[in-house]
Amino acid sequence: MNIRSLALAPALVLGLAFPALAEKIPLNELSRYLNRMTTATSEFTQVNPDGSISTGTVFIQRPGRVRFEYNNDNTLVLASGGNVAVFDPKSSGPQQYPLSQTPLSIILDANVNLGRANMVTAHTESKNATVVTAQDPQNPQYGNIQMVFTAGPTQLRQWIVTDDSGQKTTVILGEMREGGSIPASKFSINNELARRN
């Protein structure tokens, strides 16, 4: 299984109960919402490309930082300093690559602008939610991220990452707790390297 897919990609799960939404949320409102989000924590359920399911907790600190802690597993995914590190207990060291090469970088960008030319490839209303598919306009070969938002107030509920090999990973968020402080050490790749050696 592609570890990059495991960590950073999701699949649309139907039948989730979303609040009623009369029309899709405008892109400028979604950009404002993401730019206002500085820190957030949520339980998550991840549907992996092979159909298996993982659960855990995600910590987000925008810009540029995310931590996925998996339940019942010593796997850890960290993004910070422009890099992503996947710590897999079955590997001798972490797999690392630039954050800019994963579609998750769109959410973590310092200035999210979904109105940029060629960034959004789809913007629809479906099952009382707004669904936006976005890619890096300069590097569409890196894949895309499909984000699902609900209104009243606007909230990110789920994303599906399609990676550069076409594999899809879905992350379904629980109740997102926004605001508050998260220690910088939570996102330190070097600290995790030292802890595991």
UniProtKB/TrEMBL annotation:
Keyword Membrane: no
Signal listed as a keyword: yes
Signal peptide: 1-22
Residue stretches in coiled coil: none
Gene3D superfamilies: Lipoprotein localisation LolA/LolB/LppX
Pfam families on file: LolA
This protein's UniProt keywords: Lipoprotein, Signal
UniProt xrefs under InterPro entries: LolA/LolB/LppX, OM_lipoprot_carrier_LolA-like
Protein's name in the database: Outer membrane lipoprotein carrier protein LolA
